[in-house]
Amino acid sequence: MCGIIGVTGEADAIPLLLEGLHRLEYRGYDSAGVAMVVEDQVWRARAATARTSVATLAELTAGAPRGHAAAIGHTRWATHGSPTEENAHPHVDCTGRLALIHNGIIENHAELRAEIEANGHTVTSGTDTEVMAHLIEEQLSGGATLPDAVRAVLRRLRGSFSIAVISADEPDTIVAACRITPLVLGLEDGMTLLASDIPALIGHTRRVYTLADDQLAVLTPGALSVMTLEGEPVEPEQRTITWDLEAAQKEGFEDFMSKEMHQQPTAVGDTLLDRRAVGGELILDEMRLTPDDLRGIDKVFIVACGSSYHAALVAKYAIEHWVKVPVEVDIASEFRYRDPVLNERTLCVGVSQSGETLDTAEAVREAARLGAKVLVVSNVVDSSMARAADGVLYTRAGPEIGVASTKCHLAQIVALEVLGLYLAQILRTQPAARVNEILNAMERLPSLVTETLARADDVDDVASKLTDARDFFFLGRHVGFPVALEGALKLKELAYLRAEGYPAGELKHGPIALIEPGAVVVGIATRNPLWEKMLSNVAEVRSRGATVVLVADDGDEESAAVADHVLRVPPTSPLLAPVVGVVPLQQLAYRLARLHGHDPDRPRNLAKTVTVE
Ligand code: AGP
Q1: In a domain, 613, yes or no
Q2: Among 6, 70, 400, 608, which one is least packed by beta carbons within 10 Å?
Q3: In sequence order, which ranges of 193-331 are alpha helices (DSSP H)?
Q4: Whose CA is nearest to atom 3 of ligand 1?
Q5: Is residue 431 located within the same domain as residue 460?
Q6: Of all protein residues, whose CA lies closest to atom 10 belonging to ligand 1?
Q7: H/E element holding 162?
């Protein structure tokens, strides 16, 4: 999730860009850059020292030229290509007279890159963004104006983008456009601005315009015009912003956790983007581990902590079912102290949102020492663990600021299941048609998560009835068991309530002694191979006085008949169901935290990244 800022008509543009980029730092980034049209040229400065990029940029631009001309700035959260200076935005074309910044993922960048390289262009970065600069260059060399050149190129793109383009040939003009990834525009006192989101603008204007998908804007000092990609004029809708800065960073949500729960459909969708070749087969080009490296694998270990561990448990069911290779899942802090048996035919997967969790980093380091191939699934490009691994598979959830993991947890489940399908494709344990069928079902998950999020009122209603409850059991079977563990963890870390996640079949071996009137049992009753047994377990606890809340598929009246409260989710295939089924449990924990007066973004005793043993 990158940050974008642009201005034309401002006497001293660079300080304004830097201040805007600073306000976008909360989005996370690993490199930054600015560009401006100066004396018939494009002047550019970029920095790629993660976490200090904007500060480093301020040093680089200390002697920057002043001018009313068009200027753009960017903070990059790497998805394609490492966070290096050559990958930092803005990117330029071969002439150096055009500069472009971009937020999003261009799905067909590989074929477009091949086209421009065949036409003689020299592409200097590993990004999907630079390809667009060279395509626009070709249009300009054919005599097109900057707006027409950009429109022609954007009509060829698949994927998501918000972009801003400047050219030495039109020094006061910025051309901007977006699809899926948001872009806002602002007007004030002879100055026209653009940004990826409102925090970067509210220091200069509160009069903003939001571009709709496939709309293009032409910004000149104190003026803007909007059109469709076909060139039809559009009257943009103007809004007046009343938020303060922190509220703007939350984009109107009460807290970052709410915002990030609502980013889950995009996080899942982006993690799935661009994973298939034209023929439909899975390609994990960022992985670095080759198919030959993986063909010799006869066992998989997955090591992780917390919510990442729960995602790993879901993956165990999927990988063993699809790949027919044994999968062991270990709590990272226990793994290296138990003399695990690994060798060069073992694949050890470290799952870590931050890529910095010491327990998991040390576990994969031990796995490597024992000869295993190490693959890291992380949300932070070039994090410590990613750099040390033999291969990486990135979730693309964007920075997760809330301490409780939500969108990254869903993205991890999806990424690990994509890994499972990739192994099945390489080891030929599933026909290509079956892999495709499952991937197609996975691509429907974002809409199912959106549908589930929209049912928050049902969850809030149940939460209000449980405000006085102090003991919670979360029960699940099959892939519902990791979902139960995750639901219990969310309730503990957000509402500070006692909650245990248990395999439902295990209750009769002791824990059922704890069930009495007043105990709340939250059951994961979405359809899976053990659904009928799950309902029997639910009947056992209900007959002993427990209050039963079930997460159940739409239309499942049998589950509703044995529950006091039902949280409905749209059905999907069992191995994908955790991506949807965990959402009402996140919402339940969130709402109970609020009802108990706690701040979900800052739970007591917890840190977002645990870098101690
Ligand atoms: C999840 O809500 C918690 N914040 C915590 O359990 C977290 O999942 C765990 O610390 C692992 O973090 P990582 O994914 O960054 O390694």
Answers
A1: no
A2: 608
A3: 245-249, 256-262, 264-272, 291-295, 306-323
A4: 404
A5: no
A6: 306
A7: strand 161-167
Residue-wise pLDDT for 391-417, tens only, equals: 999 999 988 888 999 999 999 999 999
Q: pLDDT tens for residues 162-196?
A: 999 999 999 999 999 999 888 999 999 899 999 98
356 and 481 belong to one structural domain: no
Quick check: is 600 in a domain? Answer: no
Domain count, the chain: 3
d(CA 332, CA 104): 33
How far from 388 is each of 127, 373, 385, 396, 613, CA to CA, in Å? 22, 11, 5, 20, 19
**Same structural domain, 578 and 479:** yes
Contact between 373 and 390 under an 8 Å Cβ cutoff? The reply is yes
How close is the Cα of 60 to the center of ligand 1, in Å? Answer: 36
Cα 144 to ligand 1 centroid, rounded to whole Å: 51
The pLDDT tens digits for 79-116 are 667 778 889 999 999 999 999 999 988 989 999 999 99
How confident is the model at residue 53, as a pLDDT? 66
Q: What is the pTM of this model?
A: 0.78
Task: Give the strands of the sheet with 327-331, arranged side by side.
Answer: 327-331, 299-304, 346-352, 373-378, 391-394
Is there an atom of ligand 1 within 6 Å of 305 CB?
Answer: yes
What is the sign of the dihedral through the CA atoms of 450, 395, 524 and 437?
positive
Coil, strand or helix at 192: strand
What separation in Å is there between the alpha carbon of 476 and the centre of ligand 1?
21
* CB-CB contact of 344 with 373 (8 Å): yes
Shared domain for 484 and 591, answered yes or no, is yes
**431 and 464 within one domain:** no
CA 224, 225, 226, 228 dihedral sign is negative
Which atom in ligand 1 lies closest to the alpha carbon of residue 490?
Answer: 2
Pocket test for ligand 1, best of 260, 307, 360, 608 (most atoms within 8 A of CB): 307
Residue-wise pLDDT for 324-333, tens only, equals 999 999 999 9
The residues that are catalytic are: 2, 608
Cβ(306) to ligand 1 under 6 A? yes
Q: Which residue has the higher pLDDT, 217 or 79?
A: 217
- Residue that has been written with the tokens 């299941």 in this structure: 417
Length of the chain: 613
Q: Does residue 379's CB lie within 6 angstroms of at least one atom of ligand 1?
A: no
**CATH number of the domain that 198 lies in?**
3.60.20.10
Chain CA centroid to CA 253, Å: 18
Q: What residue numbers bound the domain in which 277 lies?
A: 256-443
Residue 324's SS3 state is coil
Ligand 1 contacts CB of residue 403 (under 6 A): yes
| CATH (domain of 361) | 3.40.50.10490
Rounded Cα gap, residues 565 and 543, in angstroms? 15
37-41, 117-121, 264-268: range with lowest mean pLDDT: 37-41
Q: Are 378 and 508 part of one and the same domain? A: no
Q: Does ligand 1 lie within 6 Å of residue 184's CB atom?
A: no
Query: Do 67 and 122 contact (CB within 8 A), yes or no?
Result: no
Q: Does 471 lie in the same domain as 384? A: no
Instruction: Write out the two tokens for 69.
Output: 């001309």
**Region 49-57: what's the mean pLDDT?**
67
Q: Indicate if the pLDDT at residue 51 is higher than 70.
A: no
Nearest C-alpha to atom 2 of ligand 1 is from which residue?
Answer: 404
Same domain, 126 and 272: no
